[in-house]
C-alpha cells in the first residue's frame, strides 16, 4: 500500500436539506464569537459569486469535517479558486453563507483568518526573501512568539525537504520548490482548515507523491482540508469526498470509488492497417459509443471494465486476419468524466451503428 493511501475513517454525512438546516439551527443558536466544535469545520451553504455576467459560483453547498479531505474537481473557470477565496475571506460572498470552525465568514472574518491556512494558486510568498524568511514572516503575521516561530520554521523546512534551498531567495527557485514553500507557508499556524488550490501543479512525480503523504498525514491529525485539482488520480488518492464542479455548480459528488463506479468507460483502442479498418469495424459489430479515426487507423471500443471482453475482441480481429499493430486500454480520464457528465461532444467521429 503506498504510504500516502488514506486510512479509512468515518464517512461524511450526506449533504441533505435536513442536515444543512440542522447545522444552520445550531449555528444561529450559538453565541456570537464563541466557537462550537460539534459541527463540521467548513460549512458552505448556497454560496454565490458573480463577476459581471459570469456566475462564477452558483449555489454551492458542502461540508468538510475535521480530518476529512474534500476535493474540488473541475475544468478551468469552473469556480474552484473563487470558492476557496470566499471561504478564506479573500473574496466577498455575494449570496449564501459560509462558516469555518463555527465562525461566520462574512461577519467574523478575523476569527476565520486565524483558523485557515491557504496555499493559493498564485503564490503568497515574497520572491525577494528566502524560504526561511518567508516562513518567519508568516509566523509574525500570526503573532507567533519568536522562539516558537524559529522552531516551526525549522520543522517545516525539514518536513518539506527544503533544507538545500531554504536560505536562497525565492526568485531563484524551481516551480516545484516554490510550490513546496507555498504549502509549508499555509501550515505555519497549524490551521484547523487548510485550503490547497492545485497544490501539486508543476511538481515532479516524486515531489507530488511526497506532498500527497504530507497532506494525508495532516488530515489524519484532524485538519479539515479542501483541495482543488485538475488530476483525477490526485483526488482519487487523497479525497474522502469529491465534488465535480462545472460553471459554478456541483454536477456530481461522492467518494472517489462511487464516482468511478458510475464511469466505467474504459476504451480499448486498436490500431490496424489502413486497408483493414472497415472490415475491423464490421467485425467489432454494434457497440454504443464506438468511434474510429480513419487517418490514424484506430478504433476506440468502449469496453466497460470487462477485461475478458477486450481480450475476446482482440482475438476475434486477429483470428479473422486483421493485422493489429498496436493496442491499449484507455482508462477514463478527467476529460471523460466531464464529457459523460456534461454531454459535450467529443472531437472524435462517432459511428452510429
Ligand atoms: N476577479 C475576477 N473578475 C472577473 N472574473 C473573474 C474574476 N475571478 C474569476 N473570474 C471568473 O470566474 C470564473 C471562475 O474562475 P475561477 O478562477 O474560480 O475558476 P477555477 O475553477 O479556479 O479555474 P482554474 O482551473 O483555471 O484555476 C471564470 O469564468 C473566471 O474568468
Ligand atoms: Mg483556479
In words, what does this structure look like?
The C terminus is likely disordered. The two termini are 43 Å apart. This protein folds into 2 domains: 245 residues, P-loop containing nucleotide triphosphate hydrolases (Rossmann fold), CATH 3.40.50.300; 76 residues, Alpha-Beta Plaits (2-Layer Sandwich). The chain is built from 12 helices and 14 strands. A hairpin with a 2-residue loop joins strand 1 and strand 2. Helix 4 crosses helix 5 and helix 4 runs parallel beside helix 6. A 6-stranded mixed β-sheet has the order 6-7-8-3-9-10, with helices on both faces. A 4-stranded antiparallel β-sheet has the order 2-1-4-5, covered by helices on one side. Helix content is 35%, strand content 23%. With 353 residues, the protein is an alpha/beta fold. The site of magnesium ion has 4 residues, from helix 2.
What is the number of helices? 12
Query: How is the main sheet built?
Result: 6 strands, mixed
CATH topology of the largest domain: Rossmann fold
Report the uncertain regions.
8-37, 344-353
Q: Radius of gyration from the CA trace?
A: 24 Å
Total domains: 2
Brief overview:
This protein has 353 residues and is an alpha/beta fold. It has two domains: 17-261, 3-Layer(aba) Sandwich (Rossmann fold); 267-342, Alpha-Beta Plaits (2-Layer Sandwich), CATH 3.30.70. It has twelve helices and 14 strands.
Amino acid at each position: 500500500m503506498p504510504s500516502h493511501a488514506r486510512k479509512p475513517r468515518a464517512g461524511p454525512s450526506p449533504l441533505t436539506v435536513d442536515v444543512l438546516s440542522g447545522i444552520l439551527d445550531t449555528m444561529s443558536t450559538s453565541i456570537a464569537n464563541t466557537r462550537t466544535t460539534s459541527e463540521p469545520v467548513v460549512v458552505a451553504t448556497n454560496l454565490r459569486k458573480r463577476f459581471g455576467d459570469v456566475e462564477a459560483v452558483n449555489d454551492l453547498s458542502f461540508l468538510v469535517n475535521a480530518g476529512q479531505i474534500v476535493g474540488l474537481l473541475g475544468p478551468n473557470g469552473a469556480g474552484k479558486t473563487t470558492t476557496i477565496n470566499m471561504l478564506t475571506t479573500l473574496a466577498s460572498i455575494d449570496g449564501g453563507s459560509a462558516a469555518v470552525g463555527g465562525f461566520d465568514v462574512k461577519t467574523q472574518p478575523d476569527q476565520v483568518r486565524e483558523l485557515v491556512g491557504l496555499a493559493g494558486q498564485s503564490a503568497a510568498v515574497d520572491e525577494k526573501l528566502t524560504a526561511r524568511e518567508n516562513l518567519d514572516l508568516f509566523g509574525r503575521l500570526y503573532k507567533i512568539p519568536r522562539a516558537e516561530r524559529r522552531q516551526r520554521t525549522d520543522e517545516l523546512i525539514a518536513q518539506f525537504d527544503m533544507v538545500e534551498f531554504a536560505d536562497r531567495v525565492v526568485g531563484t527557485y524551481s516551480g516545484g520548490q516554490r510550490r513546496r514553500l507555498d504549502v509549508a507557508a499555509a501550515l505555519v499556524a497549524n490551521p484547523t482548515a487548510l485550503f490547497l488550490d492545485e497544490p501539486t501543479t508543476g511538481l515532479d512525480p516524486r515531489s507530488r507523491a511526497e506532498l500527497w503523504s504530507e497532506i494525508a498525514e495532516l488530515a489524519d491529525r484532524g485538519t479539515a482540508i479542501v483541495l482543488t485539482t485538475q488530476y483525477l488520480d490526485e483526488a482519487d488518492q487523497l479525497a474522502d469526498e469529491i465534488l465535480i464542479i462545472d460553471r459554478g455548480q456541483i454536477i456530481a459528488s461522492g467518494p472517489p470509488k462511487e464516482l468511478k463506479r458510475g464511469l466505467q468507460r474504459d476504451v480499448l483502442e486498436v490500431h490496424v492497417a489502413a486497408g483493414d479498418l472497415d472490415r475491423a469495424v464490421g467485425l467489432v459489430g454494434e457497440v454504443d459509443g464506438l468511434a474510429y479515426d480513419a487517418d490514424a487507423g484506430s478504433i476506440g471500443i468502449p469496453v466497460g471494465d470487462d477485461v475478458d471482453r477486450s481480450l475476446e475482441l482482440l482475438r476475434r480481429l486477429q483470428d479473422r486476419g486483421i493485422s493489429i499493430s498496436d493496442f491499449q486500454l484507455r482508462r477514463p480520464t478527467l476529460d471523460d468524466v466531464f464529457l459523460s457528465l456534461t454531454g459535450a461532444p467529443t472531437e472524435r467521429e462517432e459511428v452510429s451503428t
